[in-house]
Design a protein that fits this description.
This protein is mainly α and about 120 residues long. The protein contains 4 helices and no strands. It has one domain.
Length: about 120
Amino acid sequence: MAGRHAATGFLIATAATAGVLTGLLWWANADMLWAYGISVNIAAFLQYGYDKRQAAAHGGRVPEIVLHLTASAGGSVGALAGQRIFRHKTRKRSFQAIFLLILIVQIAALVAFLWNHAR
């Protein structure tokens, strides 16, 4: 796969993985929001492991846009764990700048949500 087709394929694979995991957790009586959160973070973590392995083998890579979209969709904790455990994408400044922006937006949204629901 090349370029846009690779990104589309990886997005479909990520969505399918998160969807199946969410369905399984929901079937096991987990709250849907928790099931989604766990699933998207597992999917993000697995993306980093796969991409690191492919980088070492000079194989087809996960496009950076897919890594960022998965983090943006709620998988930032799994993405951060994948970066640290697999030591992947930690030194590329442009990638880290976008990832940091995603984290800041998500933390701000969480603080705003908690602030409004604490009253």
